[in-house]
Here is the input.
Amino acid sequence: MYRAFVFLSSLLFSLSSFSQYTETINSNRPGASQGAFAVGNGVMQLETGFRFDREEHDLERTETTVYGLDYQARYGFFMEKLELTLEGSFRSVNTDFVQGASTETVSYSNFQSNTLAGKYLIYDPYFKREQEEKSYISWKANNTFQWRDLIPAISAYAGINFAFGDNPFLFQGEPNFSPRLGLITQHNYGRWVFVTNFYGDKLGTDFPSYTGIFTLTHSVGNRFAVFGEFQTIIGDLYSDEIVRGGLAYLLTKNLQLDLLGLVNFKNTPQRLGFSLGISYRYDKFRKEERIYDESEKEQLKSDDNFKLGDKK
Here is the structure.
């Protein structure tokens, strides 16, 4: 979802502000999608979650239990529109093969995926609208539906998948390094956010796959957000359709907790999963700017009081 989706930039504040940096954390969790906007220049963010999945494969007659850790480290640098991301997952898998009256168990663990990528905001339709709203050109134009509201923010995504050594999650002959390209869109309307992600994964190899993720998020009150998500995966080795749903809770403006559930629509394998996660933002540079601004305001306030006393 996310994001981002973007979940919590709308929880304490209305989504009438769409700058890259937001007063509340801008997390991609708990869904599988990511939002079009970056975290902001100089901002570092860590998003992670513990996962439990249960899979049953009717044809292979297997039952699989998966414990995992998903993670995403995001850093905004050079400009507000640019973000560098390291994302991946670690999985511990236990598979029971049912053979007549006996059962054989196979266990293994490793990094299922790792991707180093960059995301750049190509088009931001909300920046111009902000300027128009500030100019008070037309109250009606700024407070009623416009056809331009259907134009989303658009970002381009490019990354490289990597794995080291003899990884059990790689198919035979699959390369350790492969490209990943994507297109991300984001619609913001009031307390609703709609995000789409389209990816071409492992392109140029014998194992390409194509993914579409569609996430709808709605903020409820000041601290909660709920979401629903649909993902389709098309590939020769693995295809699936997955539905996710969950909620996020804003503990502080830099700290988010989330809960996720997922299910798919086939039995090769049939999947049921849950995830509990946390996202934390470290914005040292922004904090220093705010401290400076607040001290400056206090100084101006004391000066005004002093002048007021003279007049009295």
